[in-house]
Amino acid sequence: MDRDVDTESPMLHPELPRAPGQKLKQYLATISVSLGALCAGTCLAWTSPALDQLSIANNSTSESFYVSDSEGAAVGGTIAIGALISAIPAGFLADKFGRKKLIFILSLMFLINWLLIIFAQNAITLIIGRVFAGIGTGAICVVGPIYIGEIAESSIRGILGAFINMFLCTGILVTCVFGSFTTWRVLSMILAGIPVLFGGSFLFMPETPAYLVKVNNLEGAEKTLVGFRGSNYDIHAELKNIQKEIETSQQNSATIKDVFTSKANRRAFVSVVAVLGFQQLCGVNAVVFYTVPIFKAAGSSLSPSLAGIIIALVQVASSFASIFIIEKANRKFYLMFSSVGMLLFLTALGMYFHLKRLNVDISHLGFIPIGSAVMFMISFSVGYGPVPWLLMGELFAPEIRGIGNGFAIATNWSCAFLVTYFFPIINSSLGAHVAFYICAGIMAVATIYVGFIVPETRGTSLLEIQRRLNN
User: Fold this and answer.
1) CA atoms within 13 A on the CB side of 27
2) Helix H or strand E segment including 205
3) What pLDDT sits at residue 441?
4) Contact, 386 vs 161, CB < 8 A?
């Protein structure tokens, strides 16, 4: 397996001159796999316009049917169940069958979801479809970052990794826009085209070099690296590092126990799982779900659909901007900047609704809730939106990447469920301000945790990251 080449990572010393456009294929492959995140975003946002229409639908029409409150809750919640089902085994399946095969299968999961919904005549069919949507969503959040992390060179890994979050937010925006003027069934037909584009485009994408080395296809790995790096790039040093990394991982075949007994694995696990937990516990879903009351509190007469579009648009714009700035500073800086920003704006939202609950005249402060919600979304999108997905692809060693990413995504969805479930309960019993204060407190903990626990990975090869984790 060994070759007589320089064993230093090409990312740790000056690179050879490259042909123009040598990074184009990395961007194209990243866009293709990120279409899976676009699918996930559409599935997450679909319930907002769809359930609103289904709950008031006329049973006598042939276009729709009635969904009770309990059935609507099941339709909305089963996507989380599907995601939890697929999150942990997704990494194992990607290691066994390959990243490319699994990602293509996920496009079929999303398509099955839409086909079931399009032809649904009862709530049970909707629920089954949403389980398939959850399976696709949970698994793409695991395998997508792995694929991008394994094809990207360190100089643009942060930029490429940010695509997942941007496409996820774009999926939410697309659904909000089309859902504002179409029926739920027509909306589903429109959205069904996205997994077709996703699967069709990904058929032309190569397997990752790391997986090809793992299955002893060195010729294929070399060819793939040349395609991704360009013909004027010395791929042999990078290939040598991949071989060493895979050999080490195969010698150290990991179990769940090994995640906690190895220092490097343990540091990676507590870092990635924590930031993905904080990503949901910051209350981003609470702010999204409370968009309409926030706008009403400010005296806005905007329709609920337009309010949702505005917040989604802010998310997409901020996520797009993060692509251009993500490599300008360290990962930890963006995480801490993000958590401090969210802490401040969550506190502002909490104080506003607290004063309103106390019947204090705050009519002259109508700009605070909208301004705080918008700035919260911007703060989230430049840090906790993209960076956790980057760390998933960067911190875990190959032997625990499947296990670690699976548990991280399971944690992420569990925290999402907790926020979604408890926010309305806290809101009705104690007031929205209490929920916002709790999330602000969690962001204070997140800032300290990232500052002292999470390692830096920017501009560092995957092999060097593992060396640092062991120090």
Assistant:
1) 8
2) none
3) 97
4) yes
DSSP 8-state assignment for residue 290: T
**Pair 278, 339: CB distance under 8 Å:** yes
Question: What residue has token string 């990251």?
Answer: 465
What proportion of the chain, given as a percentage, has pLDDT over 90? 46
CA angle 341, 419, 142 (to 5 degrees): 85
The contacts of residue 255 (CB under 8 Å, 6+ apart) are: none
Q: Which two tokens stand for residue 417?
A: 């469920």
What are 136-187's pLDDT values in tens digits?
999 999 899 889 989 998 888 888 988 998 999 999 999 989 998 999 999 9
Q: Are 274 and 449 spatial neighbours (Cβ–Cβ below 8 Å)?
A: yes
**Residue 231, SS3 per DSSP:** coil
pTM: 0.80
| Amino acid symbol at 469 | L
Q: List pLDDT tens digits, range 441-457.
A: 999 999 999 999 999 98
Report DSSP letters for 297-323, one per residue: HTT----HHHHHHHHHHHHHHHHHHHH
